[in-house]
Amino acid sequence: MKAMNRRKLIKVSAVLAAVSLAVTAVPAQAAVGVSSREIKLGMTLPMTGTASLGYNKIPGAAKAYFDYLNKNGGINGRKVKLIVKDDRYVPTEAVAKTNELILKDKVMALLAPLGTANVKAVAASVNPARRGVPVLFINTGFSGFAEKKKYPTTYTVLPSYVMEAKIMGEYIKDNFAGKKIGLLYQDDDFGTDALAGFKTAGVNFAVKVAYASGSQGAAAAAGWITKFKAAEADVVILFGVSSATSAMLGVAAQLKYAPQWMLGSVGGDATTIKLTGVPAGVLYNAIGFSPVPATTDMKDEYVKFFSDIYAKAVPGSTFDLNVLLGMNTAFMTAQALQAAGRNPTRKSLMAAIDSKGASFANSALVPAGYSKTSHVGLTGYWVGKYSPTGDLSPIGGTYVTYTTDSGSGAVVKSTYVRPAMPAKGLPN
Amino acid sequence: MHKKQSRDIFLFILGGVVLFFLSGMVDELRVYQGATIAIYVIAISSIILLTGYSGQVSLGHGALMAVGAYAAAVTRIEFKLPIILCFVVAVLLAAIGGALLGAAAARLSGPYLAGTTLALAIGLPSLANQFTVLGGEQGLLFDVGFPPLSLGEEFTQYKWFFWIAGLAALISMWIIKNILGSRYGRTWRAIRGNEVAAQLSGINIARSKILAFTISAGIAGLAGALLSMTIGTVSPSAFPLALSFSLLAGAVLSGLTTLGGAMIGAVVLVAIPEIADVVAHRVGSSERVTTNLPGFLVSALLILTVLFVPNGPVEQHRARKAKHLALKK
């Protein structure tokens, strides 16, 4: 009898032990990158090297907002920690650093990786999709990343190059009908996206000039100008990177060649152009496009709020488009984390963006397209003109925004009303 | 000699077995880094063969790696050949590239050769932008496929890469070691020592130099194909000038005349960024310091190596041992 009791006792205690193990194992399986005190996010982008110009301000900008958020209670008491690694704009490095972020630092999600080739290499090698790691708000406008089947955990934020070309095409139809249009574009997927957009918009070009990435410089620009002059182009669209824009505008100013310039948003950031040694004055009167308000528009509550925080966090650094976009990304991330529940996981974070992402407060003046079936971010632009100091401001003083998709959808004037800034700029 | 050879075979096989077990014991990040080290070992040994043995400088090995990488990827995509054949094509095409370059290089020496190969490193990868079949700036996907199911469900992609790269490294080290010990290796050393004397001994200098370039390029091509395997894509930006320079730095750190030292250079190249990261975070320094520390550390190591162990640590150790033995006698 005694022996029997002992056996029973052993059995019961074994069951109890197993149950208690199973119970205690639940917190041990807590979400990756989320502890009781902090949430870890990771970012790779060029911090050194030629490609880092301008972009290396993005991490500082994002951190400035996260620091502000952390000082004001964080996300449900957890502080947001952003780990930044330099990939020098080299895919091999991007893969190595992303591996470190996921496997060693065990971040919850990747934030704002930059460059199409890098994002592609990371998707192929590290395969965040297979690991279930969210890749939030990538810094490239290549339309292919919005393909949800191929990149199920990736979320875009910048409007795609196709959307931009379509909106440019619509603006040309409305304002430059009958004029001769010239186009300078990059001879790769960046340019292919642009050509697809212009084709959908039905733009007929008098002249198209392609350049190979890396070939842009003053000598090449002189050659481009000859072609545009020969075709007597009235409007010249520069749909390239900043170095191509600055080479073109710099040489054109010297040669006194002055058509109506129209700049794509990638190559139209005045701060980056100034960094290449060309005065911002060459931008004067060019037409430009942006999804977020002018960075000098202090009447805009978001711009004012972000620039105040940034000035305190990084004194002496200019508040430019890269900073605004970096802070906007951090701002949206904070709302996604807040919406992901009291104990956020990778899955609940993505579900939160799918269900509520389209209504997140953020500085953009155009709607975002997040839904259960779409990971497309911002979907449009407003049109502006550059001032003599290189600042883009809306034509006629009010923002007129256009919205469209990356397919054959029409370009329409947007009636989107931006959500008001949440109290104290904190997610609620 | 025969006995030595069978001992070497045994050592290589033992190395393989150790790596095999090691890959099962460490975490995924270390396995990935192990694959990178194996690839650097191959690339560095191609430079050791070229520079340390035949005495020709190349600042453009990154470009030859790119040739191999694109060759493998295009073969895979267009012809859907098994991965091993893609690597063979990579080696062959890079070797042909190397032979062409070698033909020009045989007429050049010193700074002129360095300049020519440098131009190649800058120009060649961006050529890919000109041909749509090469995928432009964003490059091509290079998918070697999932590991065979027989290895189990838990077998990760990176472990598969590590096995492929580790095996390739062992085999190529074995081949290089034998080439260097053969008549060709001796010929190259003779040329490096004194070209005129070598010529007087009946060595065809130009042909020997071209051969060295061809073999070295073939090996670099293999390294390139393996590198793009680990990142799953091939694009011009994966083969920047900095890659050629860091390989050369790795070769100098390894000791330009010791093949066995390639491991040291490879480990240093992979470990430095991580060490720098740890140091920077412990000290709690600013972002600017963190991002520039790896470059600074490699440069500092390079200067120290050239100053104190110009022939590399392995060679230095050997010389000290020989001196010690001679004194004893």
The coarse silhouette of chain B is globular
Helix-strand makeup class of chain B:
mainly alpha
Number of domains of chain B: 1
Helix-strand pattern of chain A:
HEHEHEHHEEHEHEHEHEHEHHHEEEE
N-to-C SSE series of chain B? HHHHHEHHHHEHHHH
Kindly provide the radius of gyration of chain B, computed on alpha-carbon positions and rounded to a whole number of angstroms: 20 Å
Number of strands of chain A: 14
Strand percentage of chain A: 15-25%
**Which structural class fits the helix and strand makeup of chain A?**
alpha/beta
What does the average pLDDT of chain B come to? 87
| Basic shape of chain A | globular
What CATH architecture of the largest domain in chain A do you see?
A: 3-Layer(aba) Sandwich
Mean of the pLDDT scores of chain A? 88
User: Are there runs of chain B of 5+ residues with pLDDT below 50, and where?
Assistant: none
Rg result of chain A: 25 Å
How many domain units of chain A? 2
The parts of chain A where pLDDT drops under 50 for at least 5 residues are 19-29
Percentage of helical residues of chain B?
over 70%
Q: Helical region count of chain A?
A: 13
How would you sum up the major sheet of chain B? 2 strands, antiparallel
